[in-house]
Design goal:
Length: 279
């Protein structure tokens, strides 16, 4: 026996059906679609092993109880499975009250670890005291990361033409952001502008086919090897080690963005201003 949705589907002309399926296929976030599909496939595989065909509230409760014992990011998995079930099955599991209550209870004592932040004095101390001969790359990453509240992905993908030296300032654009909103910011502090210009001179001496701004810095020069995402993410920890801060491993790739937002808030900015600051 066919459901109303199936009857409507079968009555739809093939060409319209194809367009609709193509549109549905593009509803997941482009950058993380693979993660969504992986979470959804894991749920389907679990249902298959349990011989479950209907995704009822009891089914979802049993699934999340099962994975909650060895998964920390339970809300993230819920969000991905919810999106896929909504798109592929027109099923809204956010209307399952017992499931939501279970997830809340399961995670109520979970405190996600957040990166520690660098305060203004620590930032200024590293930039002024650390030698350019060994630390200029870290200085530039710090200056740009703090000034623009940049994510490590944004720093990693930054290209040389995204920096425009102009008179006594440097204009920086961040074209590829997590939210899809392009943003620009300006470096105006004279000492910081000088450091970035010095780094650009060193960077542009390298003969390379890549436009990536950050290349590996070794022996006082850049070499033809782009700095990877993990290396960018470890720079806050390296800065913390230089400053002899306790537990430097707690300064993660989120440090620059969190530090930037905190500095802005400390200067009296409201929540909306802080939110706009980081795109």
């Amino acid at each position: 026996m066919y459901s109303d949705d199936e009857n409507l589907y079968n009555c739809t002309p093939p060409e319209v059906r194809e367009d609709a399926e193509a549109a549905v296929g593009s509803l997941l976030p482009v950058k993380s679609a693979a993660r969504y599909e992986k979470a959804y496939d894991a749920f389907l595989e679990w249902c298959k092993t349990k011989k479950i065909k209907n995704y009822t509230e009891n089914c979802l409760l049993a699934y999340f109880k099962d994975i909650s014992e060895h998964k920390k990011s339970i809300w993230s998995i819920y969000s991905m499975v919810k999106s896929c079930l909504s798109i592929k099955h027109n099923l809204d599991i956010s209307k399952y009250p017992k499931l939501i209550a279970f997830l809340k209870r399961t995670t109520e004592h979970h405190n996600p670890k957040k990166s520690r932040i660098l305060d203004e004095q620590q930032i200024l101390k590293f930039i002024s005291d650390a030698p350019d001969t060994t630390c200029i790359l870290m200085k530039v990453v710090l200056i740009i990361g703090i000034s623009g509240a940049c994510r490590r992905e944004e720093l990693c993908k930054m290209l040389t033409h995204h920096l425009i030296p102009k008179d006594e300032i440097i204009i920086i654009s961040v074209p590829e952001t997590k939210t899809g909103v392009k943003r620009e910011f300006v470096i105006v502090k004279a000492e910081w502008v000088k450091i970035i210009k010095n780094f650009l001179q060193i960077r542009l001496l390298v003969k390379t086919n890549t436009e990536r701004l950050f290349l590996t810095f070794r022996g006082g020069k850049c070499i033809n090897s782009p700095v990877g995402l993990n290396t960018i993410g470890k720079i806050p920890s390296e800065i913390a080690k230089y400053l002899n801060l306790p537990n430097p491993h707690e300064f993660t790739g989120h440090c620059f963005r969190r530090s930037s937002a905190t500095l802005l808030a400390n200067k009296g900015a409201d929540f909306l201003a802080v939110k706009r600051h980081g795109g």
